[in-house]
Write a structure and sequence with these properties.
By secondary structure, the protein is an alpha+beta fold. It is built from two helices and five strands.
Length: 75
């Protein structure tokens, strides 16, 4: 996983997917917002490292099986 910050957007590159996220934080709670399949996804977390590792595992392991992704992500 590679993360590049440009123009206040986080570009996160996994094996087959690049997410362009908006990350904001307040009182040690972070919100990660990105688009996926035409839907806006927002994830709230207190640990960015673990959350991005989890997203990396989801996207890298199962892009061929889209139903798996829908089960793992709350939209």
């Amino acid at each position: 996983m590679k993360i590049l910050i440009r123009n206040k957007k986080w570009e996160t590159s996994f094996e087959k997917v690049k997410l362009i996220c908006e990350v904001t934080g307040k009182n040690n709670i972070f919100s990660i917002k990105f688009s996926y399949n035409g839907n806006e996804v927002t994830i709230q977390t207190n640990n960015l490292d673990n959350t991005f590792k989890y997203l990396e595992n989801i996207f890298n392991s199962s892009l061929e099986n889209d139903s798996y992704l829908k089960e793992k992500m709350v939209i």
